[in-house]
Fold:
Amino acid sequence: MSNESAAVYLPPSDLNPWEGNPRVNDHVVDKVALSIERFNFGAPILARREDMMVIAGHTRLKAALKLGLEQVPVRLLDLTISEAKALALADNKLSEEAQWSAAVDDVLRDLDMEEINLEGLGWSDDELAQILEENEAPDTSFGESDVDYDQLPEEVEAITEPGEVVKLGNHTLYCGDCIEVMKGLEDNSVDSIVTDPPYGIGFMSGSIDWDCEVPGEEFAAEAFRVLKPGGHLIAFAACRTVHRLMVNVEDAGFEIRDLISWLQWQGFPKSLDVSKAIDKHYGLLKHEGAGMLDVTTGVMTLRPHTKPSEYSHPKPKHPEAKHWSGWGTALKPAQEPAVLARKPLEGTVADNVLKWGTGGLNIDGCRIPYGDISWPGPQDADLSNHGEVGRWPANIYHCPKPSRSEREKGCEELPTKTGAEAVNRKAGSKGMDNPRAGAGRTAEEVKNIHPTVKPTNLMRWLVRLVTPKDGIILEPFCGSGTTLLAAELEGFNCTAIEREPKYCDIIRARFGGMNG
Ligand SMILES: C[S@@+](CC[C@H](N)C(=O)[O-])C[C@H]1O[C@@H](n2cnc3c(N)ncnc32)[C@H](O)[C@@H]1O
Structure:
């Protein structure tokens, strides 16, 4: 805890209300004014130091203005816009006096897509599943585009040129297609491949054109060729596509050794309510604005932007809908798998390690200290039998998605884009309303525009697990550079490849950010 004062006194006019505040509070201003008159302020108004945007306390501010107060207590916080919105929701959720406007759905969806942890804000998985519910109809926008290219802001030209090779400390970044670049690497020349390639689910988005297939046979063959015998490959995929990657890797000659799960717990179930779908199928229920219209009674059920206790699901109408009440179509997506494969050894483990320096896993270097959150299993009360070395690393690693500040560190000088520009959508277009348009699509400003940034801690643990001291890691799908940053922090050399010049710019900026 710092010693800074909990609040300062400022004129109310110094504060800027959050324009998109989804909290409807006008009807309680009088009550709050009375309370302030009687008890003074029970708590300060929270505001962002950078722009004095009010995070929590809009009602107190309105009440203070109504009372003509010259000064109000304000606690200034150093938060990003997204963190501020998350705190605003969490803070407001505790107070059940006011009501939510429909805009809260959008705010929650945006935070979800910006990969802000929605846990702890007060909404349950059930409520969030309602808000983030998958569309019933198949996404017909696949292959089509709702982007009005004429009206998109001009793309800022990247500094990195296609084909450019950039030295970043001990690392080399190639801007190009990974298969082409790998063809130029020598046989048996890299100690490990740690990569976060396309997951093959981009068809759902329309905005992520590089994510249509998991790496195929040609990639796997090149990876096999350049990796030293006994070298390990770790490659992420989606739960629904990892089997395709595994087959490609195995067919190239690798041994599948394990499947590592990164547990992040932060996905929310985007599930279709089967019972509602059946009622809609029979024309008994239909979407109308922010809610559901019961066609038989004319009653509207709003989605849960009212208080959860006031929210009621539309009652199933059709006998089949009643039968299927309580059924959905998706689980909470709480993990992302990564294949752990090894190029076959030359001789025994000892022969291979002595000749090539590869073949083993760095168990001690990756032990999880007792009490560390990276271990999601039961915590032993009695550690007397375990010594101080920490737990044997499991094929599970637990850590949250990276925060906005982690993703943007070093990118301060990059051109600012709005979230819409970052995901290549026109503000206000149909596609922008679709949360699948991409991470951060409605954020005020984005500098690291990469939509799928991995946490640095996770990548550090993975590169350490499979790379020998001073080894060379190949990351053929470098994105915004997290594997390269992890290599730097762990003292390895990274050969990084990224096809998109704009992402190469981000890699360079993030690398610069960590080295001053
Ligand atoms: C899942 S992202 C990697 C994200 C990265 N882990 C991070 O933390 O930022 C995969 C990246 O692979 C790149 N990519 C896709 N196909 C490629 C190819 N054939 N050659 C090189 N890069 C490619 C995409 O542009 C994308 O940035």
The chain has three domains: 8-101, 165-266+333-514, 274-323. Residues 177-178, 196-198, 210, 450, 452-454, 477, 479-480, 482, 497-500, 503 surround S-adenosylmethionine (CB under 6 Å). Residues 8-101 form a domain with the Conserved hypothetical protein from pyrococcus furiosus pfu- 392566-001, ParB domain fold (CATH 3.90.1530.10).
